Amino acid sequence: MASVSRTALFGKIHKVLKKFYKPAAPPAERTVLEHLLFACVLEDACYEPAEEAFAALRHTFYDWNEVRVTSISELSEVMAVLPDPRAAANRIKRVLHSIFEELYCFDLEDTRKKNLGPTVKWLEKMDGTTRFGVAYVVQSALGGHRIPVDAGTLAAFRVLDLLTDKELAAGEVPGMERAVAKSKGAEFGSLAHQLGAEYLANPFSPQVREILLAIDPEASKRFPQRRQPRPDAPAVPVALPAAEVAPPLPAATGRKKKSEATAPTKPTAAESKTAEAKTAECKAAEMKPADGKKGVGSASKKAAESSRESPAPEKQRDKPAKAEKIEKAEKPSKIERPEKAEKLEKRSSEASKTSPAADGLGKRKPR
C-alpha cells in the first residue's frame, strides 16, 4: 500500500472514530511516575475502569512504596474492575521495583528536563514497561510524538489491512506517526485505544463491526470466524463380531514348557513285566555258587525256582527299599552256612589221613 493511501486511510479512521467515541485527555496535574503507572493500568482496558482502578490504588495504599511491597493478589483484588487485573498488578510492581532499585526514590520529574532520546531508551530498558506504556508516557508527560497501541488496537488495525502478520507480531504500525500530525496525536491515540479495547473484549460486537465496515467495506473478509473448522477425525476401526474374529495362533517356540518337559510318564504293562524279570534274574545270579564249589542244596534250588516262576505277592512288592536291602544282605549269609560246614568236614578228613597217630592205629612197631 502506498504512503498516500495509508495517510488517507488514517485520516478516515480518525473521522469515523470521532462519531462513535469521545477523546479522553490525560490530567495535566499528574507526574511522570503517575503517567507511567496509569499506562500500566490502561493497557488492554477502557478508560473508565482504568481511571477507577488507578483511583483505588491511590486511596487504598499510603504511598507507592507500600504498593511496591504488596502482593500481586492483593493488588489485583483492588483493581478487580479491569479485564486482567493480575497482569496490570504485575506490571506495576515490576516498574516500582526497578525504579526504586536504581533511584531509591519515586521521583521522575527530572526526566522532563532531559533529552527525549536517552529518556526513551532508559524507559524501554526498565523492567515491566511495554511499548504501549513508553509511548503513553512520551505522548502525555514528555511532550513527544508517539501514538500508544496495545494488543486490541493492533488486532483491529490488522482487520483494516494496515498491518501484516510480521508487523503484528512485532507490535509496530509503520508510518502511523507520519500519517497523523502531532497536534492530533493524543486525540487519535485515545480514539484508537477505545476501539482496540472494545475489539479485544468482544470482536463480534455489532458496534465494532459497524465501525470497521464504515472505515473499510472490504474488512468483512478479514473478520474473525465464530467457529473454527474442526480437524479431520482419525478413522475409527470397525469392531468385528466375536464369531468372525479368528482365534490367535499359538506362538512358535523352540522349547517346551517346563511342565511338559518335567512331567513324569507312567510305565506301560510290558515295561513293568520286563523290569520284574530283570530283578528276578539279578537275585538268581547272586544265589549261584562260585566256580569250584558244590551247588546249593535241593531245598535252596527249589526255593530259587519257585521265586522265578511264582510272582512276588503284593505285600512284598509294596515293601520299602530298606526292607529289600535287608533281605539281600541276609540271603547270602544263609547260603554260606552249608559251604562252611563242608569245608570243615574236608579239613578234618584230610587231617586224620595225614596225622602220624592215625597211621599207627592197630599196628605195632617192631622192636
Provide a descriptive summary of the structure in words.
The chain is an all-alpha fold. Among the domains are: 3-222, Endonuclease III, domain 1, CATH 1.10.340.30; 318-353. Helices cover 60% and strands 0% of the residues. The chain contains 19 helices and no strands. It has helices spanning 3-20, 32-42, 47-60, 64-69, 72-78, 85-103, 116-125, 131-140, 151-159, 165-170, 176-179, 185-201, 206-215, 258-262, 269-287, 298-309, 314-317, 321-354, 356-359. The model is unreliable at 256-263, 289-300, 310-319, 332-336 and 357-367 (pLDDT under 50).
Can I get a quick summary?
The protein is mainly α and 367 residues long.
Keywords:
Endonuclease III, domain 1, mainly alpha, 367 residues, 0% strand
Low-confidence stretches: 256-263, 289-300, 310-319, 332-336, 357-367
Could you say what the CATH architecture of the domain at 3-222 is?
Answer: Orthogonal Bundle
Give the number of DSSP strands.
Answer: 0
Alpha-beta content class: mainly alpha
Average pLDDT score = 77
SSE order in H/E notation?
A: HHHHHHHHHHHHHHHHHHH
Spell out the CATH superfamily of the domain at 3-222. Answer: Hypothetical protein, domain 2
| Proportion in helices | 55-70%
Distance between the termini: 179 Å
DSSP strand (E) fraction?
A: under 5%
Shape: elongated
Number of helical regions? 19
* Largest sheet entry: none
- What is the name of the CATH class of the domain at 3-222? Mainly Alpha
Spatial extent as radius of gyration: 60 Å
Layout of helices and strands:
Blueprint: H1 3-20, H2 32-42, H3 47-60, H4 64-69, H5 72-78, H6 85-103, H7 116-125, H8 131-140, H9 151-159, H10 165-170, H11 176-179, H12 185-201, H13 206-215, H14 258-262, H15 269-287, H16 298-309, H17 314-317, H18 321-354, H19 356-359
